[in-house]
UniProtKB/TrEMBL annotation:
It comes from Aegilops tauschii subsp. strangulata. One of its GO terms (molecular function) is protein dimerization activity. PANTHER family: GENERAL TRANSCRIPTION FACTOR 2-RELATED ZINC FINGER PROTEIN (PTHR11697), ZINC FINGER, MYM DOMAIN CONTAINING 1 (PTHR11697:SF230). This is HAT C-terminal dimerisation domain-containing protein. InterPro entries: AtLOH3-like (IPR055298), HATC_C_dom (IPR008906), RNaseH-like_sf (IPR012337). Transmembrane segments: none annotated. Residues 7-56 form the HAT C-terminal dimerisation domain.
Length: 94
């Protein structure tokens, strides 16, 4: 903050970038540790009997559980039951 106030970040851009990276490191490390912790929990509970696709889906649900908590289970259940192939078809990307 002091570097920006005194405009020293313009004079020493590499030092400013190094400080930015040093401040971001704990945040990125925590998110990686959280993902590995989730993998450990999922793998130990299911005893490694799942395939990679299912494991990937479980990891997304576990790491983004705050988003999934806000979803209504009844709506998801009805949509899943209405599907014929049990797979969602994604639109083609041009």
């Amino acid at each position: 903050t002091k570097m920006v106030e005194t405009e020293k970040h313009l004079v020493f851009p590499l030092v400013y970038k190094l400080i930015e990276l040093a401040l971001l490191l704990p945040v990125s490390t925590a998110s990686v540790e959280r993902a590995f912790s989730a993998m450990k929990n999922i793998k130990s509970k299911l005893r490694s009997t799942i395939n990679d696709g299912w494991f990937s889906h479980l990891m997304i649900c576990y790491t983004e559980r705050e988003i999934f908590k806000s979803l209504d289970d009844e709506v998801i259940t009805r949509r899943f039951q209405a599907m014929k192939a049990r797979k969602g078809i994604l639109p083609r990307v041009s």
